[in-house]
Amino acid sequence: MKIPIFSISRTWTIASSTIVQLMRMKTFYFLIAFALLVVGIGFIFGSIDPDQASAARQLELIKKLSFGAMDLFAWLFAIVATALLIPRDLEDRTLYTILSKPVRRIEYLIGKLLGVLLLVFSSLAVMFCLCLVVLFIRENAAVAEEMSNLQLARGENIELIKEQISLIREQGVRPQLAIGALASFLKAAVVSAMAILISTFASSSLFTIISSILFFLIGHAHSMATSFWESGSNGVVKALTNLVKLFIPDFQIFSFSEGIVQGAAVAPHLVGSMCLLTAGYLFVFVLLSLVIFMYKEF
Amino acid sequence: MSDIAVDVKNLTKVFQVGGGGANVFKQGLTSSYVVAVDNLSFQVKAGEVYGLIGPNGSGKSTTMKVVLGLMAPTEGHAQVFGLDSGDIRARHDIGFLPENPYFYRHLTGEETLKFYGKLCGLKGAELKDRIGELLALVDLEGARKRRLSGYSKGMLQRIGLAQAIIQRPRLVILDEPTAGVDPVGSRQIRDLVLRLKDDGISVFLCSHLLEQVQEVCDHVGIIFEGRMQQEGTLDELVSVENRYSLTLEDADPETIKEIEALISKTKGTTIAEQGHPKTTLERLFIKIAGEKEANKKS
Ligand SMILES: Nc1ncnc2c1ncn2[C@@H]1O[C@H](COP(=O)(O)OP(=O)(O)OP(=O)(O)O)[C@@H](O)[C@H]1O
Ligand SMILES: [Mg+2]
Known about the structure:
The structure holds two protein chains of two kinds. Chain A is mainly alpha-helical. Helix content of chain A is 79%, strand content 0%. Chain A has one domain (8-294). Chain B has one domain: P-loop containing nucleotide triphosphate hydrolases (Rossmann fold), CATH 3.40.50. Chain B has a six-stranded mixed β-sheet, with helices on both faces. The interface between A and B is medium-sized, with 27 and 35 residues. The complex binds adenosine-5'-triphosphate and magnesium ion. Adenosine-5'-triphosphate binds next to strand 1, strand 2 and helix 2 of chain B.
């Protein structure tokens, strides 16, 4: 009998069972908490002090907070979910039963990663839609208010109000917000692949979670490390920071999306390089995990 | 087609404990080695039930993991139906039930079988029929829709057995299939093993519950500290050359007296043992273990 090098259907079986597993672990409570948070930010927080901040500023704040929450959810969920999977399979000896079937180790690894990523993607999609709905409602309410002001206004006030409206529109629902959500997803994908790599040699979930979070935070300090390295002349420090930069992804590449969320223009080449880098990191991490996993003894 | 189901030749498996494995210099100082399996050779013929027995830590599970390709041998090799155990094609012919298995607790019995069936490439109506058949075989039709988190130890062991044979393998490997199962449950499992044998499936099992091994196995190997101590058919192992036993059923005391009288008249023959038959395998086992312990002390 011939067994293909890589079977999509087996990988899919693992991925879909991973999704079912995470869903039945009640991970969607996370989503409900998020929904409450966003709605809270959008309606309660946003209307505390309408005189103080302009409507446009309020929208900006709502976006910043809800997209920030979304981003936090995505990477944290990716780490925790990934870290719970492989160490637990190993502990419960479920892995033995899977690998003693005609399943290749690469199919198992990619299946697990795919399952987590699909779940992160769909939760992000749901959260993104929720954010858009809240934003849309707030935006139109603010515009309607300005419109009613417009009817009463005279002279130069008209210009002023029109400017206000365009400012509000700028902070409202815009297509480039999707790029902000995409960046969150790509970041979560890289974090998840990193957690998979760690869990191939770590034996506990807790260790995987903690070290993944640690590496994630260190991964935000690349530019800091670079400036440090450029200012210092110590060879050892140089080598060390280079090593860190080699193995820990630069998570800052995803942070330009914060600007986009706040209304800055999109630089297409940045989006492109972000996608490329993500693909590169995923490839390297999966490859390394596979090498370790292939030779791992259970 | 090979008529040897499992062929283990000069298998040695050494584990390195401690040391971490990263630093070569450190290894020499801090780590030690455990020889779990030591130059072990045996064969399981197609269609027979082979039992490997030995005390805790004697290397039974390790041997099985090597045969399954979950571990690589340090030396020697293991083959399954003529294929190297590391070959994924061998996995099609093997069903495995690990010791104290835990499957995905969030899945129902039916979903569990579906998952493993899909991993073996089964699908559609064929898979559905097979699942029904297996649930009936292991007497879990009533628990079909219940999650495994609510299964008892015996039920888990039976769903595990069903999972192992879902793709109709030619060889089934069972690691302590009756550990922690009550007498009624172990009887059920024993009957299932005998049914597999009737269907022409080879069974390789290990246990330290000798009575059960004695009931089902054609061939028995006794392993102690990773080395094969004695091996042979059950008859060979438990018969003592210069002794002969006669087991009577429903004999009245008169007949027994007559036989005793006859024997006492014969020169050179004595009655060495009399009474109700005992599990002789157990005695042999204890004898070997006792001898080894004594050797170690002296
Ligand atoms: N992954 C491992 N790393 C280090 N040592 C191991 C490992 N697996 C097993 N051992 C050691 O190898 C020896 C044999 O273990 P094994 O699990 O094969 O025994 P066993 O016969 O199955 O025992 P039991 O009846 O308790 O299941 C033991 O001394 C054990 O401590
Ligand atoms: Mg064992």
